[in-house]
Amino acid sequence: MTDPNQLTEHKLVQLAKILNLLADGDYHSGSKIAQYLDVSRAYVWKLIKELEHYGIELSSSSGKGYCWQASSQLLDSQQLSATLADTGITYFLITDSTNQQLKQNFLPNQLIVTEYQTEGRGRRGRSWQSPMAANIYASYGWKTELPIQQLGGLSLVAGMAMIAALQQEGFTGLQLKWPNDIRYQGKKLGGILIELSGDAIGGLEVIIGFGLNVNMQSSNELSQAIEQDWTSLCQLNQQKTEQQESSQQSCDRQSLLVVIVKSLKNYLERFAEKGFEDFLQEWRKVDESLNRKIQLLQNNSSLTGIARGVDASGALLLEINNEMTSCYAGEVTLRYET
Ligand code: BTN
Q: Is residue 171 in contact with ligand 1, taking CB distance under 6 Å?
C-alpha cells in the first residue's frame, strides 16, 4: 500500500472531494466527477483506482458511473475546530496511525483525527482495522506531571469517559473489559491505546488513542479481518429498532467525536486532581469481568482466578486460591474461562 505520507496535499484534497461527492451513496458519472474536479476523465480513473487501493469499495456501472455503497459523510475538520475551540485539531483523510502522528510531533491538548489508517494499531502489537470514514480513529495529547506509577488507571478512565459520552448519546448497556476494551454484550465496540513518552522531570507526554466502531458493517471487507467478535454503534441502533441492515440509520461521527473529546477532557482533569480512586465506584458499574473466572496471559505464562474488580491504582484484583493478587495492565491479555 502507498505510504500515506507520500500523498501530496493536492491529491488528498482531490480524493476527499470525490468522497464528499459520493457520500450520498448515488452513482456519479466519470465526466461529472472530472468536471467537478476540473481534471480529465483519465485522471479521475486514476484517482478512483487510488481510492480502491485504500480499500474503498466502489461499484461502477457503464452508463451510471461510480457509487460508494458504504458511503459516509466525511468529518468536517473546520467545524470540529470551531466546536472544540479550546483543542488543537489536526485532520488527515488518510494516515498511518493517529498515535504515530502524535508521537512524531507531540503537542499537548491536540487531537489527531483521521478517516482511515493504513497502520492502525491496537494493544500488544495487534493491528486496528480502520475502514474509510466508517468509524472514529483519534488520538489526544495530554501532558501530565503525575508520576508514571499513578497512570495505571488511565486507560480505564479514558474508557469510562467514552462510555459516559455514549450514554449521553443514548447508548446503554456498555461495559469495559479491563484494561482497555469497550464492549457491548461481550462484543468489542472500541479500544484505547495509551502510549507514553517524555521524562519524569519535564512531565510525561501521554498519547491517548481511541478507536470506536460507529458505522462499520460486517459486509465491509476490512471488518472481516477482525479476529474477535465485534459490534458497532449502528448495529446497536439496528438491534434497538429491529430494522434490517439495508434500512439502518448511520450514526453521526462528527457529533459523537465532539461529545467524546469533551468527556475525555473532563475525566482527565478529574483524574489529575483526584486520582483513580475517585473513579472506583463508576468502574464497578461498567466492569464486565467482575466475579468472572478469567485467565491473564503474559508472554508464555498465565494466571487463572476470579476477577474481583480493581484496586485504587487501577490494577486488576485476581483471586487465586482465596488470595488476592494485583495485576498490572502492561502487556497482559484477559480471557474469560468457560
Ligand atoms: C485496542 O483495543 O487494542 C486499542 C485500539 C486502539 C485503536 C486506536 S484507533 C486511533 C489510534 N491510532 C492507532 O493506531 N490506534 C488507536
A: no
Q: Which three cell numbers stand for residue 191?
A: 479500544
Under a CB-based contact definition with an 8 Å cutoff, are residues 85 and 78 in contact?
Answer: no
C-alpha distances in angstroms, 90 versus 61, 113, 261? 36, 6, 14
* Angle formed at CA 80 by CA 77 and CA 83, multiple of 5 degrees: 155
Q: Is the pLDDT of residue 116 over 60?
A: yes
Give the atom of ligand 1 at the shortest distance from the alpha carbon of 100: 14
**Chain segment 238-289, per-residue pLDDT in tens:** 877 765 444 557 899 999 999 999 999 999 999 999 999 999 999 999 999 9
The rounded Å distance from CA 191 to ligand 1 centre is 6
Reading the block at residue 114, the C-alpha cell is 483521521
- Indicate if the pLDDT at residue 320 is higher than 90: yes
Residue 251 DSSP code: P
Q: Which three cell numbers stand for residue 23?
A: 457520500
Global pTM? 0.92
CB atoms inside a 10 Å sphere around CB 170:
10
**Do the Cβ atoms of 234 and 251 come closer than 8 Å?**
yes
- Per-residue model confidence as pLDDT tens digits over 190-202: 999 999 987 667 7
- CA 180 to the chain's CA centroid: 11
Rounded Cα distance, 332 and 296, in Å: 6
Distance 157 CA to ligand 1 centre (A): 16
Pocket test for ligand 1, best of 96, 119, 128, 192 (most atoms within 8 A of CB): 128
Decide whether any atom of ligand 1 lies within 6 Å of the 66 Cβ.
no
Name the residue among 87, 258, 259 with its Cα closest to residue 164.
259
**What's residue 2's pLDDT?**
64
CA-120 nearest atom, ligand 1 = 14
Does residue 166 have a pLDDT over 90? yes
Angle at the Cα of 78 (from 158 to 140), degrees rounded to 5? Answer: 20
CA distance 190 to 80: 21
Q: What is the distance in A from the centroid of ligand 1 to the CA of 333?
A: 15
